Amino acid sequence: MIKQDRKTIGKTNVISVYFDAEFFFERGLHSFQRYDFPKALKYFRKSVDLDPHHSKYLVHLAAVYTELGNYEESNRLLTFIVNSIDSCFTDCYYYMANNYAHLGNFDQAERYALLYIQESHDGIYVEEAEELLDFICFELDREPRELDQENQLIVQHEKARIALEQGKFVEATRLLKEMVEEHPHFLAARNNLALSYYYLGKYDEAMGVIEEILERDQANLHALCNLAVFLYHKEKQEEAKQLLAGLKKVQPFHPEHQYKLATTLGILGEDQRAFELFSSLSKRGLMEDSSLYHYMAVASYNIGREAKALEYWTKLKQLNPSCEIAEYYLNILEDKELIQTTERLPYHYQLPFDVQLKKMDWFVNGRIPKNLMQDPLIRSSLLWSLRYGDRDTKLQVLQSFELLADEEVEEALRQFILEKEEEDYIKKVAIFVLRQIGAKTPYTANLCGHLIEIDQQTIEERFPHWMENWQKVSNCLRKYMEGQYDLLEHQEAQTIWSSFLEQIYPDLPQIRKAEGWAAAIEYYMLVRKKKKVSKIEIAERYDISVQTLSKNLDLLKQAFS
């Protein structure tokens, strides 16, 4: 072995090579052209991970899924492209038509083939789309349809439904309201509008839409299922039980209705009946949707049939080798200690939110990176968890919302702070986030059991606007703590300052130097959190003397003793 001179160790020049999304795309394209689809899948997925909103990478990933027979995943990506990235990428409609044809869903295949021809009169696939339509009409033994108003309405409804799935509840609400106004008898849009209101926390509006549907069709199964979920989450147990008793007796014929009823009953704890309905779907040969394998597995597990659960998750893993959901639950079944403490699994075709938070080094400096938060699954999980998560989860979600400063988040936060049942502290953190993302005042919040309006004068923890020196301390805290603490610690420091002023009122101190008080508050907060810190270190950072810090710290301690 050649020995390296010790003096040269650590001095060699190592040049790190950065592999970007385009590098992996080119490798994937090479494998795709050689018909090595598993390897192409690996490379295309890597390029999408590095650049998740590039249509070229996404459409090639969709193409690989098609070649591997995973048509549902392919269509999910294609729908995401035309609805969220590039509405002019109309070739996606033709690809979707082919996928639906492979799945045997000729009505949907016809719809998207017609849509492609309408949107791309001179498109490169027009001839192929017409041949596909001829084949579909031969299979269905009828004349071809036109893309009439009904079909256009369905396509518009599909866009709204996708927005709903992606957690874009404000956008979905806008689209669905327009559809309901223009087509009042289109009850599917009304049902999704009710869900959209519900996810935004507008419970009364959601219930109002459900009542309108049931007035028009008292046996509308989607409306009854949605109503049962709404009642359950609002803890109206008696009403929910009465409705559930009726739903358990329903024997739907249409697969879509059967699917809706099964998932609803599963969510509400009626696992045995859910299992029966899912089993019926599988016997009818309707297992093309990979999520159905997951629901079958969950229902099996929840009624104590672990061997069946193992069978269905294994099938899901075989159908979609990259499915993290199947892998996660298969690992649960292998962990004997964990399985003994896991009584019941949730009916959500996604990883549990706490598991998602721990994956992929999501948290960077206490926050989820913005590129990850744009993922539809993560985004909808965050918005859902703000409503129905536990206390710690809600605080984590709020902390991450600083990076999602858009209309959806602002609307969700404004609705959240109106909730009577929600803890005041968490609502105050939400108000703090609204301020951080630049949401315009006033904010209307339900605090201490009363509706109050928070305007620009009261936003700084109820500081009077004219007391500029008090305000300077608050601003100073934000300036010196920026980049060193997370959102909750920022909020805690501001709360200490406002609580101190409330405690000593009307004997308020003179503020000669804001930095002296800000330093004392930061130090006091760290001591309360039992974190090691020296007065010298804090004083130097704020450019004050240790004596000034100690004097103000003593006043803080006296007020809170």
Automatic annotation (TrEMBL):
InterPro entries: CellSynth/LPSAsmb/PSIAsmb, TPR-like_helical_dom_sf, TPR_rpt
Highest classification ranks of the organism: Bacteria, Bacillati, Bacillota, Bacilli, Bacillales
Residues in the signal sequence: none
Pfam families per the UniProt record, alphabetical: TPR_19
Positions of TPR repeats: 21-54, 187-220
Database matches in PROSITE patterns: TPR
Keywords tagged on the record: Repeat, TPR repeat
Protein name per Swiss-Prot or TrEMBL: Tetratricopeptide (TPR) repeat protein
